[in-house]
Design a protein that fits this description.
Layout (H helix, E strand, L loop, with lengths): L2 H28 L1 H8 L6 H28 L12 H25 L9 H31 L3 H10 L1 H17 L6
Helix pairs in contact: 1-2, 1-3, 3-4, 4-5, 5-6
């Protein structure tokens, strides 16, 4: 097992889980207009998803870009190592923003419409379905950026996600406990 790769991957996954909620809390506490839209049940939530999604992508970039460079440099000779730089960070951010907004918009739209069952097994299945559907929503929204920048296809992006979906479920289960225990960090 490669400890550097595993540690970087775990930290990046954790950042992905908390970036959007942290962004919402920051904006709620610092911007009265954001708070008003967030708390108004009749207001369109599109500004919330876009603003918090953009800030969430920035939080992910600030943490995950250096970690991804560390991962890429693991085991590479010193003269071939990548360096952390502004151009790389901006590129990483651009690749993150669509997924961040798309996930939030999909989750925020679907979650209130799907009732939470009393049965804990059904509730867990609901949550897994919401996360996986929202991840696909993020892929769909990020597709135009990835098509232009990397030549990606929508079928390839969604198909790649579906192929590795088991890992998302396992990671979600493994981190669910820690999200509740460490939830104080975003309050």
């Amino acid at each position: 097992m490669n400890c550097v790769d595993t540690t970087c991957g775990a930290l990046m996954t954790g950042t992905g889980f908390i970036a959007y909620p942290v962004a919402v809390e920051i904006l709620k506490n610092k911007c009265q207009k954001f708070r008003k839209i967030l708390e108004d049940p009749k207001a369109s939530k599109i500004p919330i998803y876009v603003t918090a999604g953009a800030l969430g992508a920035a939080i992910c970039t600030a943490t995950n870009y250096p970690l991804s460079v560390c991962q890429a440099n693991n085991g590479v000779p010193a003269d071939k190592k990548k360096k952390v730089n502004l151009k790389g960070a901006l590129s990483f951010y651009v690749d993150q923003i669509g997924s961040s907004i798309g996930f939030a918009a999909t989750m925020g739209t679907l979650a209130p419409k799907i009732p939470v069952p009393n049965n804990s097994l059904l509730a867990a299945a609901r949550n897994h379905a919401l996360v996986n559907i929202s991840n696909i929503g993020g892929k769909v929204l990020s597709y135009p950026i990835h098509r232009i920048r990397h030549g990606s296809t929508l079928c390839g992006m969604v198909g790649g996600y579906l192929k590795n979906m088991g890992g998302v479920v396992i990671t979600g289960d493994a981190t669910d406990h820690f999200k509740r225990v460490l939830g104080f960090m975003i309050q």
